[in-house]
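Friendly challenge for the regulars: who can give me the structure tokens for this chain first? No prize, just bragging rights.
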Amino acid sequence: MKNSVRRLCTCVLCLLICLPALPVSAYGGNDITAAANGVLRWKRAQNGTSSGRLFTESFAKTAGDGCDWYMIAAGRYGITDDRAAYLKHIGAYITEKYKTADRLDRRKATEWHRISLAVLAAGGDPRSIGMDENGSPVNLVADGVYNRGYTASLGKQGLNGWIWGLVALDSKQYAVPSGSFYTREAILKEILSYQLPDGGFFFAGSISDCDTTAAALIALAPYVSTGRKYTYTLKHGKQEITKTAAQAAEAAAARLSELQLSNGGFTASGEETSESISQVIVALCSLGIDPQGDKRFIKNGSSPVDALMSFQQGDGGFAHLRGEGSDSMAGEQALCALVSLYRMYNGMARLYDYTDGVTMKAVSSGGTSSGTGSGADKKPSPDSGSSGQSGGPSVGAAQTQQGGASGSAELRESSSTVDGSSSSSPQGASSKGEASAGKETGSGSGSPSQAVRANAGAQASSQTSGENLPGETPEEGNGINPIIFVIIGAALIAGGLGFHFAKMRSGKVQGKEEDDFFASLKTYREEHPEEEPGGTIEENPAGEDKHEAP
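First reply, four minutes later:
Bragging rights claimed.
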């Protein structure tokens, strides 16, 4: 009996131990997709579209100077939209820019990197897009990454150039030809050399900041599982050091945790911004770290996702600063973060690991997807509840490629709004033609997810059959957390085992009682042979039954 009870306790304990391995999220799959779809609806409304498309002809005209990050996020989300319009206009933009001495930008290599990632998300090839001055197809990966040094240093704009150059290079595991100015290892070492003694990375000066630290983690993510050691000289202190990418990433993740606010958020230049939070979420997802499940990033019960969702407005957009209205750049960065969460929780590759082939699905003249072979149709449902990340160092699981988001300290370097509030695109891309909703939208009320779902119905009339937003059902709401089923299952198993052992115990007691009963009966029969079963009942003079039951 004791062994049976011990086995029961062991089974229940094992079940309880397994529970933390499940993705337990304050915001479930339906919440994430509702928030992401809300951003897309808000942006379409801001663009004044009635077609149900985000990439209308007018919006696609901002390619290279406004809509690239929306293409990156929406493309990796796998929605159906007019990607052909984007590819047409980005090709024309590159051709015009290559007629000048600066080409895309003499100072900012990140112009090549951002556009490369956007072209990939649109289903194009960044190695053959637009025309140069000689009429040859432009290779953005060559000109912007491994051969960038022939015209200007990849690091001319600081650490950002190295980070996003590596992200672009690894997005489809592009090979670096022999004779190139930079090797992949040289770029990686440059990134590592910027790490500070506190584990963080810096954009300028010698103080680590969360945006740059997060961006560096995005670039390091594909290398944390290799175990390879790199020797390099630190920019700060000029010390030669040998480390693995995993060791560097572990220290950087610890520094991010230290920089986190008590409400789960992050700051940029002393102010809590949604863009900084978005950047961190993408970085954590790139490492296989669940921003809602890792205790290092839960402060006073709040996660980075909790903090980010508090910036979402009732119209579906996201504010730059708390209390402001929806902002275009805040929306695009939040969409990158939400899509990163969506992909992680559905066992998909990181945001910037394009080797999975998931891109924006093209639309036909009839408004349906035109079989592009993107692989987006094969995505699991948003509520599958599995991160699908492989095991790795303590920084988190590392997949083969990295995800990413915006460009750290350069996120808001240019301004263009109606009311004078700041609204800019990352890495030098201005928000021309993208007026912020500003104070017209207000700050919203109620929980963000509820606001998004309520707003979804109000905006449904502007959508067409061509719209394809992942995870949407006729009645959108929170799915049942899979942890509930596990708990119920454990309870049922425990109850069943308990009943089983109780029954066994009862059976043993009953068996003992039956043994005692038959022993007594035998003794009685030996003492009263005249009353053997089958005998006759003797009647006394009074007519009473003298036959007594044993």
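The mean pLDDT is 75. Residues 23-370+381-460 form a domain with the Glycosyltransferase fold (CATH 1.50.10.20). Your move, everyone else.
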